[in-house]
Amino acid sequence: MRSILLTSDSDIINGLRLAGVMGVLCKDKKELQKNFDKYKKDPNIGIIILTKSSFEEIKDEVIEVKLNQKTPLVVTIPEVGGKMEDDFILKYVKESVGIKAI
After folding, report:
1. Does residue 42 contact residue 24 with C-beta atoms inside 8 Å?
2. Fewer CB within 10 A of the terminal residue: the chain, N end or C end?
3. What is the DSSP letter of 80?
4. DSSP of 15-38, one letter per residue?
5. Phi, psi of 59 (to 5 degrees)
């Protein structure tokens, strides 16, 4: 299974491309929604990565996928220079696995 990044930030696309993650540049909400709908149905995609701003644009759709589908896993990363909660990694482990990591 592959991972895909959906964002409007070309710097993040270039950075994750170095790690082997394919990225799709989404210029507006309509394009982001279209690509999210496409890749959430793709059996070859195991992880959809969204930047925080992209997640906020289609939050309801993302939550629906997280609640009702086993795959793909949808994760959110901060923008370049952006910050998420201090313990966002621990939060994701707890949400994904159901246990608290110390």
Report:
1. no
2. C
3. T
4. HHHTTT-EEEE--SHHHHHHHHHH
5. -55, -45
Flag whether pLDDT at 96 surpasses 80.
no
Question: Each residue of 5-53: pLDDT tens digit?
Answer: 999 999 999 988 988 999 999 999 999 999 999 999 999 999 999 999 9
DSSP string, 34-55: HHHHHHHS-TTEEEEEEEHHHH
d(CA 91, CA 68): 20
94 CB neighbour count, 10 Å cutoff: 13
CA distances to 1, 32, 40, 41 from 70, rounded to whole Å, are 13, 21, 11, 11
Token output for 53: 């701003």
Cα-based torsion angle of the residue sequence 87, 91, 93, 96 in order, rounded to the nearest 10 degrees: -160
